């Protein structure tokens, strides 16, 4: 189950991750959102699922140049893979945690840390590298090269 995110939600989630990397609780509080916005823990869980699935697909060699038949074959290989199963368990746990959290900023911070640790597990990025990666993801959403 992939949850669609708007560009604004992508940007809000990225800003929250940057706030956690910078240990900036004030920025995280501002990003908690308001009426009509998805609670930050739920948004971060959805963003984490989207991003980790994207990383997983990339790890299996699926990209925009992969033809339909090859992509189908590679996707069939993903589900039983132990790395994929861990990603699926993690994203399910993030959604469960977010479901219990409401709009609790402390839980949002814990979910963000889990996402950052998972990204680090795939990329070996330290905090400085994580910020560069997050800026790159933001630029992608904004269409900046």
End-to-end distance: 30 Å
Which residues sit in consecutive blocks of at least 5 with pLDDT less than 50? none
Overall geometry? globular
**Helix and strand element order:** HHHHHHH
Number of helices: 7
Q: For the CA atoms, what is the radius of gyration?
A: 15 Å
| Coarse structural class | mainly alpha
Give the domain tally: 1
**Helix coverage percent of residues?**
over 70%
Major β-sheet annotation: none
Number of strands: 0
What is the averaged pLDDT score? Answer: 86
**Fraction of residues in β-strands:** under 5%
Structure description:
With 145 residues, the chain is mainly alpha-helical. The chain has one domain (7-142). The protein contains seven helices and no strands. Helix 1 (7-21) packs across helix 6, helix 1 runs antiparallel to helix 7 (127-142) and helix 5 (82-101) packs antiparallel against helix 6 (105-123). The longest helix is centred in the middle third of the chain and has 20 residues, at 40-59. The chain is globular and about 45 Å long. The protein starts with 6 loop residues before the first helix and ends with a helix.
